[in-house]
Write a structure and sequence with these properties.
The chain is α/β, with parallel strands linked by helices. Helix content is 36%, strand content 23%. A hairpin with a 2-residue loop joins strand 2 and strand 3. Helix 1 crosses helix 6, helix 6 crosses helix 8 and helix 7 crosses helix 8. The structure holds a DNA duplex (20 and 20 nucleotides). It comes from Rossellomorea vietnamensis. This is NERD domain-containing protein.
Length: 302
DNA sequence: GGAGCTACGGTCCTACGTCA
DNA sequence: TGACGTAGGACCGTAGCTCC
């Protein structure tokens, strides 16, 4: 059973929204690639665990806060009073561990993901006890990318390598477990404790006036040319999208990047940048949002 | 209170897509 | 190919807000 599905994080959505509008430096480009890759890895793991959903309750991408410690869990599976956590890494290439430090293929030190797993395990166990659940917590560090290899790591750690993944899933699938009422109660409790991310420390600085205006294709993030009749056509990736869909997407992007700004026809018209008539924008807003006020003071909200 | 500004809506015309 | 429907563009009027 799946009771919480995965969606791109707000930070990833904001980065995607900013990418075509802002000149990213190398660090920012790498960070977006890292987030995209991470998300793709998580989606791939979700696909692998689909067969387990019949006998386990799954919660994906849950963020919890405890004693001012915020921690995010890529995936959780609960059954027969046991809670599995999965930290999914989509690392690629040859990584080496020296003196408990992790080195990427280009010899940069990366955060030790085992420490993250241990921290999550400890905080989650504490949370479960506080809430009165007797479930045991078993944490796993999953490396999903088949092009990943880790050298010089001691054995006996809760790591699942790409070559072991299918057997690992098969092992979980053959375990004689079932979803108990207590498992459901725990899943619902964790779902109710889930919070939205609160900090986006790695976002580049941006300002409305300096951002490039336009509607970016959701496929390749390149700006559309003006619409042909009622739809946009991306010359780069051949994707086609209705003007209404594109405006709604731009509206969500604008609200995500500028949550305190009022949504007006003119502002969205300027933000989209490709329409010749504001009425196209107004029509979409009127059809999909509620209007407050009139004239210069009017704005829309959902 | 009036001028100026901004936003919305009405009307007409044109362009484009669909269908018989 | 022509009729029809729909969307977009231009122009203008109206309404509401701000500022003096």
């Amino acid at each position: 059973m799946l009771i919480k599905d995965r969606e791109p994080s707000q930070e990833l959505m904001m980065l995607r929204g900013l990418k075509p509008r802002l000149h990213f430096n190398n660090e920012e480009k790498n960070y977006l690639d890292y987030k995209e890759k991470g998300f793709q890895g998580e989606l791939a793991f979700d696909k692998l665990t689909e067969p387990l959903r019949e006998k386990m309750v799954f919660l994906n991408d849950v963020t919890l806060k405890q004693n001012n410690n915020e921690y995010q869990i890529d995936s959780m599976a609960i059954a027969s009073n046991k809670l599995h956590t999965f930290e999914v890494k989509n690392y690629e290439g040859d990584y080496i561990v020296k003196d408990n430090k992790w080195f990427s293929p280009n010899n940069n030190i990366v955060k030790n993901p085992l420490l993250q797993v241990q921290r999550t395990d400890a905080l989650l166990t504490q949370l479960l006890r506080e809430k009165g659940f007797r479930h045991t917590v078993e944490s796993h560090l999953i490396f999903i990318n088949p092009e990943f290899h880790l050298y010089d790591i001691p054995s006996g750690l809760p790591i699942v390598y790409p070559a072991q993944l299918n057997r690992f899933i098969e092992m979980l699938n053959t375990e004689p477990v079932k979803i108990t009422p207590s498992d459901m109660k725990l899943a619902q409790s964790l779902l109710s404790l889930h919070i939205n991310e609160s900090t986006y420390s790695n976002l580049p600085n941006y300002d409305y006036h300096t951002l490039q205006k336009g509607i970016a294709c959701p496929g390749c993030l390149k700006f559309y040319s003006p619409p042909i009749y009622t739809s946009f056509y991306c010359e780069s990736c051949q994707l086609q999208e209705s003007t209404e869909q594109a405006v709604l997407r731009s509206m969500e992007e604008f609200q995500l990047l500028f949550p305190s700004e009022k949504l007006t026809t003119n502002r969205l018209f300027d933000w989209c940048g490709v329409f010749k008539d504001k009425r196209t924008i107004r029509k979409v807003l009127q059809g999909n949002c509620q209007q407050q006020g009139h004239g210069v003071s009017s704005y829309f909200f959902r």
